[in-house]
Amino acid sequence: MRYLTIILFSIIFSQTAQSQIYEIGVFGGGSNFIGDVGKTNYISPNQSAFGAILKWNRSPRHSWRVSVIYAGLEGIDAKSDDPRRQERDYSFDNNIFEISAGMEFTFFDFNLHEYDNKTTPYLYTGITSGRHSNFYFDNNGEIVGEGTYSWAFGIPMVLGVKTTLTDHLILGAEIGARYTFSDELDGSVPDFDNEHPLSFGNTNSNDWYVFTGFTLTYTFGRRPCYCDF
Fold first, then answer.
1. Pairing verdict, β 22-34 and 47-59
2. For labelling alongside 152, which of 56, 189, 224, 226 has CA 20 to 30 A away?
């Protein structure tokens, strides 16, 4: 059994040492919300965000990417520059669990099989789905929990830059806005039909949230042929 374990570890190490095609790692940073409650600054992290990320490098210029991120979302009218929101004085504190999948494009070749330092900006887009709790504001401006959850689908628009630290470690910094197809993240549209008279805000504008932070990934895998897809 001992010799078998040594052989298995030797095979895994030799495969990893020869090439990198996959990346697995972590994301850490902050989040901010843009909607009908609170500030409307596009980049203003006020809650923590953390998660995991997996990439499949299909060529030196693009990768398939999947991530899961858990973050807080906060909106406080008192911190807004809008006098009407300050007077209304609503606030909420919610959480979102996001699953995202799509494609990452690099501005320059990022060939992980050439063992020299590489740095490139990149873009990422695809589709996201974020699970959040539902609530609304009553006539007194107090939050009423609905005891349900919803999934908010959206489109991520991410701009970042990444660089190789070692043969197997890649550090990235990115700002990613998520445009959602929902207007329920901030409680401005109650989930129950009989509560719709309590809706407020711009019903023609859906909610956004933004993640700002860093990624650290470890590369591994079999040397690819870099197919044409």
1. antiparallel
2. 56
Q: Phi and psi for 19 in degrees, rounded to 5?
A: -160, 170
For residue 5, pLDDT over 60 is answered with no
Specify the range with the lowest mean pLDDT, choosing from 42-46, 47-51, 182-186, 194-198.
Answer: 194-198
- pLDDT above 60 (res 225): no
> Which residue in this structure is represented by tokens 């570890």?
9
| pTM (predicted TM-score) | 0.85
CA distances, 207 to each of 42, 77, 162, 179 (Å): 12, 15, 28, 7
Q: Average pLDDT for residues 95-108, to the nearest whole number?
A: 97
| 33 in any annotated domain | yes
Does residue 123 fall inside a structural domain? Answer: yes
Least confident of 4-8, 108-112, 214-218: 4-8
For the record, the structure tokens of 44 come out as: 């203003």
For residue 98, the enclosing domain spans: 2-220
Nearest of 210, 187, 196 to residue 37 by alpha carbon: 187
- Residue 229 belongs to a domain: no
